[in-house]
Write a structure and sequence with these properties.
The complex is a heterotrimer of chains A (about 270), B (about 300) and C (about 375). Chain A has about 270 residues and is mainly α. Chain A has 15 helices and no strands. Chain B is an all-alpha fold and about 300 residues long. Chain B has a single domain (about 65-305), classed as Orthogonal Bundle (MetI-like fold). Chain B has 13 helices and no strands. The longest helix of chain B is centred in the first third of the chain and has 34 residues, at about 75-110. Helix content of chain C is about 25%, strand content about 35%. In chain C, strand 4 and strand 5 (about 65) form a beta hairpin. Chain C has helices at about 40-50, 90-105, 120-135, 150-165, 180-200, 210-215, 235-240, 245-250, 335; strands at about 5-15, 15-25, 30-35, 55-60, 65, 75-80, 170-175, 205, 220-225, 225-230, 255-260, 265-270, 275-280, 285-290, 295-310, 315-320, 325-330, 345-350, 350-355, 360-365, 365, 375. The two termini of chain C are about 35 Å apart. In chain C, the strands form four sheets. In chain C, strands 11, 12, 13, 14, 19, 20, 21 and 22 form an eight-stranded mixed β-sheet that branches. Chain C has a six-stranded mixed β-sheet with strand order 6-7-8-3-9-10, sandwiched between helices. Chain C has a four-stranded antiparallel β-sheet with strand order 2-1-4-5, covered by helices on one side. Chain C has two domains: about 5-245, 3-Layer(aba) Sandwich (Rossmann fold), CATH 3.40.50.300; about 255-375, Nucleic acid-binding proteins (OB fold (Dihydrolipoamide Acetyltransferase, E2P), Beta Barrel). The chains are: A mainly alpha (about 270), B mainly alpha (about 300), C alpha+beta (about 375). Chains in contact: A-B, A-C, B-C. At the A-B interface, helix 1, helix 4, helix 5, helix 6 and helix 10 of A face helix 1, helix 3, helix 4, helix 5 and helix 7 of B.
Amino acid sequence: MVSTFFRHGFLLLGAAIMLAPFVLMVSISLKSPGEVFAPEFRLLPVQWHAVQNYTDAFTKVPLARFILNGFIVTFCIFAAQALTALPMAYALAKLRWRGRETSFALVMLALLIPPQVPAIPLYIGMWQLGLLNTYAAIILPSTISVFGIFMMRQFFRTVPDDLIAAARMDGMGEFGIVWRIMLPTAAPALAAFACLSFIWNWNEFFWPFIAVQEEHLMTPPLGIAFFSNAEAGTSFGPLMAAATAVTAPLVIAFLLAQRAFVEGVTMTGVK
Amino acid sequence: MPSAEAAPRSGGRPGAAAEQVAAWLLALPAMLLMWAMLLGPAVAVGLLSFTDWSFGDAEIPWHGLGNYAELWGDRVFWISLRNTLIYVGVSVPATVGLGLLAAIAIEGVTRGRGFYRAAYFLPVASTLLAMALVWEFMFHPTVGFVNQAFRALGLPTADWLQNPDTALLALAVIGVWQNLGLAMVLFMAGLKAIPKDMYEALSMDGADGAWERFRRVTWPLLGPALVFVVAITAIRSFQVFDTVAVLTEGGPSKSTEVLLYTMVQNGFTFLRSAYGAAITMIFLIFTLALTLAQTILLDRRAHYG
Amino acid sequence: MARVTLHRISKRFGGTQVLRDVSLNVADGEFLAILGPSGCGKSTLLRVLAGLEGCDAGSVLLGEEDVTERAAKLRNLAMVFQSYALYPHMSVRQNIALPLELRRLSAWQRIPLLGRLSGSAVRQDIAAEVGQVAGALALDALLDRRPSQLSGGQRQRVALARAMVRHPAAFLMDEPLSNLDARLRGEARAEIVALQKRLGATVLYVTHDQEEAMAMADRVAVMREGRVLQVAAPQALYDDPVSLEVARFVGSPPMNALPARVLLEGRVEVADVELPFRAERGGKVTLGVRPEALRLSPEGIPAEVTRIERLGADVILHAEIRGIAAHALARLSPEHVAGLAPGAFIGLMPLRAMLFDAQGARIALHATRREHAIG
């Protein structure tokens, strides 16, 4: 009994610390400049400045555009990842072909390479192709998800061989098997992967920071950084409003798809 | 009618040739992208680090180990490396330890698990940059939440992000806050894999307290999960960049200069591509070393329990 | 429907020779069971026939055509797997329709949603055929369910329907009843045989259950260690096995194999008791007597009762034969065993027997008394 009390107490304290920045973010986004820097901390403002802050956020920088870019970029990236990873995972998991072991070894090798390592040559390559400062620049490097290939391969291996033999006897080609048999069977794993892909690419800062300079292409994190630099600490309220707006889709998606999120993450670790 | 002889066959499956072609076609897009976006550039970075090329140069002069020699003598590089290692050395134990505590605590309660799990994991899913700015405010010397709380508790306060002695620590706090949930979730999966009857066997053997349970069952059986979480957390911490780029820009006085930031500065801001490539290689070597250590440790645990 | 011929098929898997020069002929409309213990190669043989595996030597013919090099989907064979292999995310209706859709709709027409814009006439035909087959197997009420919502017996019928709807040249079945419980198995067995007769279908049926093979098939091919030992109708297999191996494989409980001696003039002796048979050859032999062919008689082989299993209609008597350390089983009626208990001494007289040489091959045996016969 006592120990449960302590556990909950400890956990609640921790939860408060973990959630504090979110609460603070929303709180500041509602306050006027005077209240933001008030010596005493109040959760809710005396004077509601929310409308002003949020309007400022959306007008001083193209915030709506940043958020839209976030959706465009994450969607395109995930679509490309799924289109390339699923067929490869199937080939690695179920087909017998010369070069399979080598290809898999290459996938494992690629897993070891942190995403920041290819940055300089990719930048140079894109500059030469004139792709810098385009959507393509942001999307292309992330279209290959070796992690996705690995994860889907592990999952595909659990599909019974008889099912594929039956499909072959029914007359299905390999391409058909990928999209009509493997994909539906792997739907939960793919959903988990979609969630991971979405958060990862929405929040990605390193590469967009390097590859993109123009406002209208900025992804949410870039947009926030831009806002922060541009306004240099004076419009903290609107900045927090922008931060809230940018974090909101993730939080909503997370709360709705919590189980898929967490399962996706644990699937990566517990093979 | 077939001949009386047994016709010799290839032994391969009928349609095996078609399967070979199909497999290559299926794998081709992924392989092309993998080479174009990952493996190719990784090789290119390695080669580039041996040249003396700056962005926009017409020629690519060979430089051998020149960049590495320069790194050896570069004061900023050593500061950067040291800072990164300190950052990892501080944030990994904290993240792993707190994550483990949270996982054990949550597994031990019956109600509210979903809520706690969501609360602790939310930072992992959120946009680091946006939250970093909130933390910047929290670290504000006068109105910041941290100092207000510390003052109330009688603890010493500081200008966390402006003071060279504390800036790196402040960034580490943000890093721990963000990664804790990930460690926790991975540990929860590991804890679930521990069979309940081991605790019961321990009870029968006479040990019932939380410490004994932890020491004799949880800790030993979490071994592989622990190694994995430490490795993942270490690799992620090693990649610290966002907070540095936006909050401190390497300062004050280079106290938060970290490896990736130095790499970006040299490779992109100063346009010294080859030098930046050399820094990238150092970064890669450290990451590979961490992964190698993980594999060796896991392998050893698997064989010797 | 067509004739199926497997001609001298050999196959290795890694270091093991799984199929050794196997030949089989299945007539059009015949039900052939391939019977053998696990690991004898029967499933591999079926898969070679289906085109799912290749072989190292030999030919596969459907009718007159050599299809050995042809891929599985081009052979017009349908397979029912042990696990049924139903597509879990599709309804029963879609499962059955799929083979027809794959063959009759073009790739464009098969694209989900958009493809539905064309080919409606073909789809109607397909729907009609699916309905027909579903009706024949009593699946009408289940057409919109998913496999996970069906019982084992229902899934089995869906697998059959999916095979039937293609009107293949032959049906290949790989232990389709082994996942059902015993009660359902009997019913399913009868259904499959009735279906086969009605369709006039050529069926190759792999099983390890000898009772199943005997009950269902027109002919049974007994396999062991990659070889076909004998192919014959069930009764012929029982009455006239070509070797001791085959004899012991068919019939339950298995045939008794008693060490015996052949003396001058072909007299046959077991445990020093002369039996009313004459053998054509001598040497070290084994007398095969089925449990149902043993009777109690004072002139029989002396044995001591070790166990009596009363099964109701029959009694299985276990006995130890004195002197040669051999064990025998006899199947008797309850009246004959009344009053017997373990430890009693009895005489076992074979009414029918077979003789096998040291390698297990049959040696001709004649009965010397009218009431005895060659078994």
